[in-house]
Amino acid sequence: MRLRGLCLLVAPALIAQPARAQETIPLPDAAVIEQMCSSVGALQYTFGETGVPGGDRLLRTLSKGFPLPASAAPFDHAKPWSTEWSDRLFGMEYTTSAKETEDAFSEFARGLGDVLAPKGWELQPEDFDPPLYMLTLAGDQTWLRSIDTEQGPIQLVLGLSNSPLGMTLACGRGDLAEVHAREAFGDLPPGTPRPKAPEVPIPALLSEADCGKPDVAAEIARVFATESTDGFMASMVARTTYRDRLTSWMTWKLEQSGKISTEALIDLGFASIGSATPGGDPFAQFGMIQEMLELLGPVAQAEEAGDAAALCRTLVQLQDWFARVDALTLKQTEASQAAMTAEAARLGVSFD
What we know:
Number of domains: 2
Shape: globular
Number of strands: 9
Structural class: alpha+beta
Strand content: 5-15%
Order of helices and strands: HHEEHEEEHEEEEHHHHHH
Strand order of the largest sheet: 3-4-5-9-8-7-6
Radius of gyration: 22 Å
C-alpha cells in the first residue's frame, strides 16, 4: 500500500506484515545469491560507484526500493545504500513482503549458510558484537568474507534479520560502511564544499473539514505517499536533510581548524539548541514521540479499512504533528548554526 512506508518510516515496530502461509521459505539459487552479494557489488551496481538511483538519504528514507525478479524470492525489493556525503554505494538491502515465523527463518538461514560457505563466507557466532560502523549491515545472523583489493584485504558483510515487518538481507563492504558512518557523524571528505541548503517549503496544510471532499481526501493521501519525491513526506525529509548537512559541515570545519575541542563544540550545540527550545530542553522534540505513536494506530486502521475520509482525517492530524516538530527543529537548527557562525568568527575560522 502506498502509505505503509510512512508508518515504517516513523514507527516500524508498530506495523506488522501478514504471516507467510507456508513454513518453508524459498531460497534463491547460488547464482542469484552471488549476484545479490558478490565480491565487487550487488546486482548491477559496483561497490564504490556514485550516482546509484535511490541510494541517497532522501529516497533511502522514503522508498522501499525497486522490485526484484521472481528468481530473488522470497526477497521482492532492493534498496541501495550510498555513503552520506561522498555518494558511494556501500551496500544493498533486500526485503520480503511477508512476516516469517522463527522456525521458517531458522531453516532459511541454515540453507543460506550452506550456499554461502563454498564462497568463503564465515558465519559469526551468536555473541558476535560488530563494530558500530557495521551495524547497518549486520543482522540476526551475520557472515563475513575477506576479499583482496588493490588497497589490501577488506571485508564483505552479509546480515540476515527477521522482524514483524518481514525478513531483510543486507550486503555491503565493511570499509565503505565505515566511510558512511564517519561521514554521517560529521567526518567529511577533505575539501568538502559548503553544502547548498535551499529552503524547501512545507506543502499547504489541510484541515479535517476538507476531508469530506473526495478529491481532497485523495490528494492528501497522494502527498503522504512515501514513493512520491514531491509529496509531503519527501518535503519534510528534504528540509531536515538540508539543515542537518549544513550543521554537520559547520561542525566539521570548526573541528578541522583545531581551534576548538570536541567537548566545547558539544557544549556549544546543546546550549544553543536549549536556548531556542521552550523550557530550555534540547530534547523537547523527543517528548512529542508519544503523541505521534498515538496518531499512527488510526492511520494504519483507516488505510487497512480502505476508508479514504477517515484516512484523510488521521493524516491531517499527523501532518500537523510533523509541521510542529519541523518548526521546533528549525528554530533549534538556526540557533545552533548562529552560535557556530559566531564562534567561527571569534576563532578566525572561515565558513566561506
